[in-house]
Amino acid sequence: MHSLHIRLLPLLIALAFLIVPPSQAQDTDELGNALSSIGQQYADSYTQPVTDALGANLNAGLFRTAEVGGEGIIPVIDVYVGVAGTGALTSGLQDSFQSQEDDEFKSGGNTFTIDYPENTDLPTVFGDKNFSGEAEILNEDGQKVGSASLPSGLLDTPIAPLAVPQIGAGTVLGTDAQVRFLPETSISDYGSVSLFGLSVRHSLSQYIPLSPVNLAVQGTWQSLSLSGADDSANPGEIVDASGWALNAQVSKSVPVAPITFYGGLQYEQFGVDVGYTFETDAGTSTVSFDQDASNSVRALAGVSVTLAVIQLNVDYALASNNTVSAGVGIAL
């Protein structure tokens, strides 16, 4: 059994690193190039669904049971190493918008206006990938001095996926901790992604003698950074995101089978700072703005199955942006 642990541990860690970067890295590079031709107001509407999906995904898959301690086979301390795969359903995300106001920028001491099309459905990141449009660049006298191509949608998918590696350990006085970590990792010509998260969970059922279910509360903080490739229009950091979540958990194991049903109610917040450089015929300017993800409360239910030291789980969460989450890991 011990040799099985040794073989599976590096496999799971490698799987986590292989899954996470490609899905994020492609969006990083294309997003940086897409933003290079639009101003702040337009970019705010264009990228909001990305923030919503990212916040929904990162705050999913935080637990598999409300039992704190007793999961593993090692006495005194429990260790979990695994991968959480989450997916935000894009059916609830905005795929188009109409420009409400034009953007202004300064270059060379002059002020210019980016005049966007009116009464036109413009795609968000999850919108029409075949869209073709153009904005006019006007000087202070209202004369056209250039133009800027408007980006099409980048992703056409019913679910926006994300996978993160996570390691948990406990318990101390009915408390355990979980770390999500991905060092800055560059993938081909796409760019880089880095992630860090910390969760602390405390058992409540330990204070309730003969409690028929396991109860726990958990607090989580996470941060994520996305940067463009060195040869992209925006090679630096494009997205600096962070958020937190507080949840109450409940679970019940089936006595005659290695199955645990779990659920929870979670309050969360996730914010993103976006910064990039855009270039037009009239000049170059820098843009920065912040956004908040739409999810604030979610309710979730799921099931976990333990086969020897292998744990498998899946759950579904109802929120402003619904998510499905699945995990695989080793519990020692």
Q: What are its keywords?
A:
single chain; 332 residues; alpha+beta; 10-stranded antiparallel beta barrel; 4-stranded antiparallel beta sheet; 2 helices; 17 strands; elongated; disordered N terminus
Describe the fold and architecture.
The structure is a single chain. The protein is an alpha+beta fold. It has one domain (2-331). 16% of the residues lie in helices and 52% in strands. It contains two helices and 17 strands. A ten-stranded antiparallel β-barrel has the order 1-8-9-10-11-12-13-15-16-17. Strand 9 and strand 10 form a beta hairpin.
Return residue spans where pLDDT drops below 50 for at least 5 consecutive residues: 1-29
| Helical residues, percent | 10-25%
Q: What is the number of helices? A: 2
Spatial sequence of strands, sheet with the most strands:
1-8-9-10-11-12-13-15-16-17
Instruction: Estimate what percentage of residues fall within beta strands.
Output: over 45%
Average pLDDT rating: 86
Q: Give the structural class.
A: alpha+beta
Main beta sheet: 10 strands, antiparallel, barrel
Query: How many beta strands in the DSSP annotation?
Result: 17
Terminus-to-terminus distance: 11 Å
Query: What count of domains describes the coordinates?
Result: 1
Shape: elongated
Question: Strands, helices and their partners?
Answer:
Layout: H1 2-35, H2 40-58, E1 78-89, E2 96-97, E3 103-107, E4 110-115, E5 122-123, E6 133-138, E7 144-150, E8 159-172, E9 175-187, E10 191-203, E11 214-228, E12 237-253, E13 259-280, E14 283-292, E15 297-307, E16 310-318, E17 323-331
Antiparallel strand pairs: 1-8, 1-17, 2-5, 3-4, 4-6, 6-7, 8-9, 9-10, 10-11, 11-12, 12-13, 13-14, 13-15, 15-16, 16-17
